[in-house]
What does this fold into?
Amino acid sequence: MPRAVGLFCALVVAGSVGCKITHPHHELVPSPKDFIAPPDMPRELSKTVLPTYTVEPPDILVIEAIHIVPKSPYSLRTGDTLSIMVQGTLPEAPVQGPYQVQSGGIVNLGLPYGSVKVAGMTTEQAQDAVQKHMTTFLREPVVAVSLLELSGLQQIAGQHLVGPDGSVTLGSYGSVPVVGLTLQQARQTIERHLSQFLEDPIIAIDVFAYNSKVYYVITEGAGFGDGVARFPITGNETVLDAISNINGLTEVSSKKIWIARPVPDCDEMVVLPVDWQCVTAGGIASTNYQILPGDRVFVAEDRLVAADTRLGKFLAPWERALGFSLLSVQTVSRFSGKVLSTQNNFGGGGFF
It folds into this structure.
């Protein structure tokens, strides 16, 4: 037992020395106190407008079709919508309104007129086909047929994900590269591409989801693993907004916070220290910096909590080994005591 106690004391001393090991994060990054933010750095009360947005993966663009007319001659296909108007129909069965080209390339004019096949025809040919068909039921029908909506419109209008190759896919109209372009440039590029198939196409384009311009909030975990949260940039965030997005500081976090701005190498590091007490309790905006795309808002760990965690990790296997040793000694002692007691009982009974 004294030997076990001595071993435990030695482990405690070794553990206390191990607590002085500096966390790797703090070895790589100079102290935030070594950095002074430039006076023109954007802050809560003096924000700046971000540069013109450029499209990158995985943004989601929304395209609205303003003027989509196919080049002539256009052959009708399944999914197209025609406007068909027939004069001189039966009063109880008018033919007037939109009719979609259904599977098999037909338009169904309803009872009692039935269907007419129009796929592969131009609108003029489809009008003649409907005219000929309606003469079977009517004496002198007057038919007007026009293209109301392209089936390909659904492939153009709507939400489009910018793929890993930096392009958006427009279905049968192919793909258009838009990476690195502003919205105006992307609109012109898409319209130029569609002009191969359409007559003077006009579209409107906007960003539905700003997925490519983000910032990160990194929280040291005091030995329990660091946390990384990723948030999209809207152009108005500050440090206080970033911390509120992670529901504030935790019990393992310290109040040492700074922004690390992305740079090519270590020699050009840009670190902006944040005075958390001034920002929150004092409402002082001098260190409540505006967050820019790519920024890392770093929340350092509480050193005491981190030291306690590392000490616990260091001592845990030795504590288990010591506990097992003590349990073994106690078990052997109890077993020996029972054997001696049994022998004494047998001796008192006259067996020996």
